[in-house]
Design goal:
Order of helices and strands: EEEEHEEEEEEEEH
Number of helices: 2
Low-confidence stretches: none
Structural class: mainly beta
Oligomer: single chain
Largest sheet: 5 strands, antiparallel
């Protein structure tokens, strides 16, 4: 018989404050008759490899059962989180829902996958200079810089660069300050709470 499957991601989001990625959705698949194990896989499209996976049991889904007649439609929902790691930064991530004939980490000998099109791009950044002024021989700089690539990086350096001469003039390590305003406007960035 023809194996049918349908799936949908309700949530695939970066929880920047907690350095986590949240995944929730459903995957109905006729192959579940032979494949009781369900895994959620976080896949790095940039590096073309799996970065993490979890065995995630499916839960009841009467809404899915009323919309489709696939074998496990009444028990197809899943939800999990993945910790954000420095290796994921500056990369694009996608999710794979996998049913397997095993619950072992090696996925067993048979599986049925659904690749979602949703993506999280962890290469974003934004910034603004509130002040750039000169006072005698001193250059004063104040502003903010949000970036996903800051996880695990403990040093923030501001560099004064002379574009005309094409060289660095000076650099100073700075201590970031709390930035509650950015947590509201730029809350999707990993360092939004502490970017000033």
């Amino acid at each position: 018989f023809t194996v049918k499957q349908q799936a949908y991601l309700d949530t695939f989001a970066l929880n920047a404050a907690n350095h986590m990625i949240t995944v929730a959705g459903w995957h109905a698949d006729d192959a579940t008759v032979y494949m009781p194990g369900h895994f959620v896989i976080l896949f790095d499209k940039t590096a073309n490899h799996e970065v993490a996976h979890k065995l995630v049991p499916v839960t009841t889904s009467p809404d899915v059962a009323s919309a489709t007649h696939i074998t496990n439609a009444g028990k197809a929902r899943f939800q999990t989180t993945f910790d954000l790691t420095p290796a994921m930064l500056n990369h694009t991530l996608v999710v794979v829902s996998r049913y397997s004939n095993s619950t072992a980490d090696d996925y067993g000998s048979a599986s049925s996958d659904y690749w979602f099109n949703n993506q999280i791009n962890l290469d974003a950044q934004d910034g603004w200079l509130d002040n750039l002024s000169q006072s005698g021989n001193t250059i004063n700089v104040a502003g903010w810089h949000t970036a996903d690539s800051t996880l695990g990086l403990t040093h923030h350096v501001v560099i004064l660069y002379d574009y005309t001469a094409g060289k660095e003039v000076s650099r100073h390590e700075v201590t970031n300050a709390p930035s509650g305003d950015l947590a509201v406007s730029h809350g999707n960035f990993v360092n939004a709470n502490n970017a000033r």
